[in-house]
Fold:
Amino acid sequence: MTDIFEIRSQLQKRLKPHRYEHTLGVSYTAVCLAMRYGGNLKQAELAGLLHDCARQYKAGEMITQCEKYKIEISEAEHQNPLLLHAKLGAEMAVSEYHVGDQEIASAIRYHTTGRPGMTLLEKIIYLADYIEPRRDQAPNLDDIRRLAFQDLDNCIYQVMKQILEYLERSGGIIDDTTKQAYLYYKEKETNR
Ligand code: FE
Ligand code: FE
Structure:
């Protein structure tokens, strides 16, 4: 059985204090969302804890680590290697933190981009990462936080929209999966 306390103390050693704090926030927020939507609390807690477990690496190390795990690196990821922390984190959860649960690995894998047709756990981690209590950057967070507990898919759509608008405004790199995910939830939410 995975020992959550052991994982927590390892993360605390490896991550910067603010990142570790964020990790705890995501973990507990994910548990709350799982309570609301009938998800598995243990999975939510563990996926939340581990979602940024590869965030300790700087750009160059991120590439080296990904090569070690034979992770395919896209053009966008070469330009901005920090994007790789999601894919790398999913691999590390399995091989370094001994998480055998593929659903958890997948929630880590897609926590930054989302994807079309996300599982409940994937949605929970994606949103928990955006709304956890220490976050304070995004616009109308109060509304988004309330919406997260009222209408999961609509909240996913609103968050993806905000992120894309921000990336477009700031000239950031937009991953293809991010765009596909947004179009999927836009279609779903505007047609109901
Ligand atoms: Fe992250
Ligand atoms: Fe995060």
